[in-house]
Amino acid sequence: MKTFDETIRLGGGLVHHGKQNDRIYVLKTPQEGMERFILQLEELADKNGYGKIVAKVPAPEEGWFLEKGFVEEARIPGFYGNGSDCAFLVRYPDGERQVLRRGEHLEDVLRKAKEKEGMLYMPILEEGFHCRQALESDAGDMAALYRKVFASYPFPIHEPDYIRETMESHVAYFGIWQGERLVGLSSAEMDLAEGNAEMTDFAVDPEYRGKNLASTLLHVMEAAVKDRIRVAYTIARAASHGMNATFSRHGYAFGGTLRNNTQIGGAIESMNVWHKRLQ
């Protein structure tokens, strides 16, 4: 059985780490003791030989990390409930991990995506298709579609129990069905306290690509969460023409590239951050 990275409490912060992504990902920083927290991150990275540390850091706390050699790779304005930006600050214990692979291709993807800014095309689902919020009873079919689409993923969305667990806490999943067949999926991972949501976990059955299903899912998710969420964002595969173009069309602004950041589709890939104000 594949072992996924784990999420732990560390020094008052919330950290996701493991060898699958070969990194530490700081999801939440502690409210106090920042200098000690950063030292604990360095110790954890050294102990496990991780190649990258990436941290989501509120703007007022950036200085602690910058003084320790972290640099900014991306930023989301007004991310937190108090209006502070979120900076994605990184360090590379493994210098080779910092080298951007396929740089020309990634630049081409980003350029073409930005050219589509404001060119929103909202497709109408073909007859026999319908879109709705997913239920716990759908978890088995959802996990099967994620297994079909992704050879690897940073979180265990291939497992029905994980999908049910996140449904019960903070994630709203949405799907598109042709009749009884599930053909497209996405999710809104919500932080209601801070008023932001990650639009993520997009997967379309390879037999149904080219029908703009991801665009439909994004439109439906935004409508579902906009009364509770101020800022929507995504961390999209930098090499994907389709996903980057979809977010650009929907009015998302480019926030930066996280280099060699995430294990997805069987390899460590660079990821683009996109963001949008919903309120």
Uncertain regions: pLDDT < 50 for 5+ in a row?
none
Number of strands: 13
Question: Mean pLDDT score, rounded?
Answer: 95
CATH level-four homologous superfamily name of the largest domain: Gcn5-related N-acetyltransferase (GNAT)
Largest sheet features: 7 strands, mixed
Comma- or semicolon-separated keywords:
six-stranded mixed β-sheet; 2 domains; 13 strands; Aminopeptidase; 27% helix; 279 residues; globular; alpha+beta; seven-stranded mixed β-sheet; 7 helices
Describe this structure in words.
The chain has 279 residues and is α+β, with helices and mostly antiparallel strands. It has 2 domains: 6-98, 3-Layer(aba) Sandwich (Aminopeptidase), CATH 3.40.630; 103-277, Aminopeptidase. The protein contains 7 helices and 13 strands. It has helices spanning 34-48, 62-66, 103-115, 139-149, 160-169, 213-225, 241-249, and strands spanning 6-10, 13-18, 23-28, 52-58, 71-76, 86-91, 129-133, 171-178, 181-191, 196-204, 231-237, 253-264, 267-277. It has a 7-stranded mixed β-sheet, sandwiched between helices. Strands 1-2-3-4-6-5 form a 6-stranded mixed β-sheet. Helix 3 (103-115) packs parallel to helix 7 and helix 4 packs across helix 5 (160-169). The radius of gyration is 18 Å and the shape is globular. The protein starts with 5 loop residues before the first strand and ends with a strand. 38% of the residues are buried.
